[in-house]
Amino acid sequence: MARAAAAEAAAARAAAAAVAAAQPTLQELARKRLVELQELLDEEGEAFIREEVQKFLMSEKNDEKSADTDTRAPEIYPTQAESSDSRDGAAEVRERLIRAVTAILNPLKNPPPLQEHCVVTLHTLCKNVIDHPNDDRYRLVKATSRTMTQKVLRCVGGEQFLYAAGWTKVTVNYEGYYRCDTAAVSSATLRCAEDVLSKNLTLCRDKAARHERLKTKEKDDAARQKQELRRAIEEDKARRREAEERKRAAKASGASM
Question: Is the pTM of this model over 0.90?
Answer without folding.
Answer: no
